[in-house]
Each structure stands twice: as structure tokens, then as C-alpha cells.
Amino acid sequence: MAAIQLMKSVLEDYVCKANDCIQIKLVRSESDVFDDSKGFQPEFTHQLFGQNENIFGYKGLKIQLFYTAAKLTPYLNKVCTSEIKKNMFDGVQADDVLKVISDKLEIPIVDNLDKFIARIPEDADFTPTGTLLHSYPKESDDTTKYYEIYKNTIDVPGFQEYHKRLQTFLWWYIDAAASYIDDDDDRWMYFTLFERYMVDGKKQYALVGYGTVYNYYAYPNRIRPRISQVLVLPPYQRQGHGLAFLETMYNDFRADSDVLDITVEDPSDEFVRLRDYLDCRNCMSLPAYVKDKLPQGYNDDMAKEALEKFKINKKQARRVYEILRLRVTDHSNPEEMKAYRLDVKQRLNIPFQKQKSDYEKLKKVLKPEELTAAMEGTGTQERQDTLETWYQELMTFYRQVLERLAMA
Hints:
Oligomer: single chain
Shape: globular
Strand content: 15-25%
CATH superfamily of the largest domain: Gcn5-related N-acetyltransferase (GNAT)
CATH architecture of the largest domain: 3-Layer(aba) Sandwich
Structural class: alpha+beta
Number of strands: 14
CATH topology of the largest domain: Aminopeptidase
Number of helices: 16
Mean pLDDT: 91
Radius of gyration: 26 Å
CATH class of the largest domain: Alpha Beta
Low-confidence stretches: none
């Protein structure tokens, strides 16, 4: 038993956290290859290494996943101070970490550093594919940097092959990206964001972000774009690019008469806040959302104007109303806050009203003991507690949006 415990203790020293030992890098020049400050880490690794996000079999492990900044030519390598060999611990083997990554990425990978460095100058010939939708400057460290946003479909020459490399970032930064999207489906739209910079008087590009949108059918002859994924890479986050990216998508959808409204698929909390901010900022200009009308409650004019002007769907329009009403509510006035709280909770209570209807139906077909089991956890106190939790969570989100609106 003691020997087993000792072996277990020794083997635990060979467990590494995948998020900590993977370094991703966008390389513009040979000097970037050796500059650790250019690297950044993944946000998620469970989709490759399991829920614990562990890699077994190494000490001092460093995994280098480098891309040339424009063409995204990839290089993959690992270094470590110690690695378990097959004959060390009764045949226990280290994870074949490079194979796990290369199999998941499903693209040709350069495994020789000199060959990778030789490929870097090829980026000078890169030009983004697709339609240029928007370009904008950003001030940074007393210099002005320039950015461009493009829209592609999969049949744009050269884009399908580029997309195979582009989508590999999803494994590291989009939770639950269980598989690549079907790029043979022509209902997908793709948006790319690049930094444009000059080298020896010639334009060059570096990837900043990537987004995908699926055009769902909307009866009888419209489409309903659903934003699936939006990613701004870590070196460019917290700089306003997410807002510029989303606003450009919105403007493109709104210019299309076939688009009914805009939806979002399973958004992250950060994306929810970004979307709320943009929609609130836009709706503040609408007559239905003026300060004097908000305390009177949500109405059809709000939904209609948000849809017609900004293609905001009804559910999101209601959320925008709640945020903007909170903005004009006097928080020091108990009566105003009570009226606001009751208004929001009335909406939150809708699922429980459905449960009440279901209860009446079940009463007719279930025995008393079966009915009790079916409705467990839906009593008055449980419902009130749940509503209060939902309400407080919303207030946290809403206040963050209002703080950003106040700084705009």
C-alpha cells in the first residue's frame, strides 16, 4: 500500500494544467518567435484535455502553438524538463499532447522551427478576402492603428481554405465548440477583423477577430441571422474592437431588407453585456424609449420601433426597456424601485404561470402522490426565492451596462 501511495505521489508531480502551459502566439516577424511577451494563453482546454483540463506525463511542460499573423500558418512544438517514459512506471505513458492538438485542429502543421520562420515572410502577400464593410482607427501608445472588417461567404475564392485555419481558435476561446461548423452550408456568413499596418511602405495584416452568423429562415420570405460565435483574440481585447465588430455586423444586417430581426445563439456573459450596451445606446434615440415614457411600462410601440429601426427582436427589446427604465428610476425612492421590481418580476414569473397551468392539467390525470412528486420544488416560497435570485442577477448585469452607458 505504501508503495502504491508513493507511486501516486510521484505521478501527481507529472500533471500539468493545460491552460497554463499552452502558449499561443501571432507572429509578424522572426523576433516575435522569441519574444514571450507576444504570447497568450487559451481560455478553455477541456475540449481537448477533459473537464479537469490536465495534461499528464510531464514536468515543466510548455506547448508552443504559433501562427503567422495573417495567413495563420501554424507551428506546434513542446518542451519540458522531464517526461515519463514507458519503462518508468509499469508501462504508464505520457499523454501524446501534440497528437491530441494536431488531430483536433485538423490542419497541416509545421513542426520544425526553422521551416516555420522561413514561412513568416509569406504573410507579406496576404490580402483579406471578402467585402470590406468597415475600417476604423484606434489611438494606442501615441500612435494610430488601423483596422478593417470583412464579410465572407464560403464560396469567396480562397476563403474556405483560410477558414480551416481560422476556426481552430474556437477550441481555445469558445466554450462548448463541440465541432467545426459545416462550411458546405451556404447559409453561414463569416466576418473577419484585421489590423492593417505598414512594412517598408506596403500594407500587411494581422488577424484580430472572427465571427460566424447563420441565416435562419423566417416565414414567409425573410431571414433571421443568428450570431453564433464572436471572438476577439486576447492581445486585442478590452480595446473596443468587440463593439466595433458587433456594430458592423448589425449595420450589415439592417441594410438587408430580407432580414427580419437579429438573434444570438447561447451568448457568453461578456457578449450579453456588449449586446445590451449597443442595443440600449441605439434605442435611447427612439421616441418610444424617451425618459417620460419608460416608467409607464413596456408597450407595443417599443417593440415595433426597436424592430423597425434596429431589427432588435421582441425579447431583446423588452430587456432594453428594463435597462433603460432602471436608468431613469430614482434608486433612493422606495416607491419607484418597488414599481420597477414588480414590473421585472412580473415578466420573470411567466414560466411559473405556465407551471400553474400545467398543474391544473396534471391534476386531472395523476394520482395525488404522483402529482406531488411532479410538482416538487414549485411551491410559493421556492418560486419567490427563485424570482429574487433571477432579479438580483439581472440587476448585476443591468448596472454594468448602465455604468458603460454613463461613460459613453
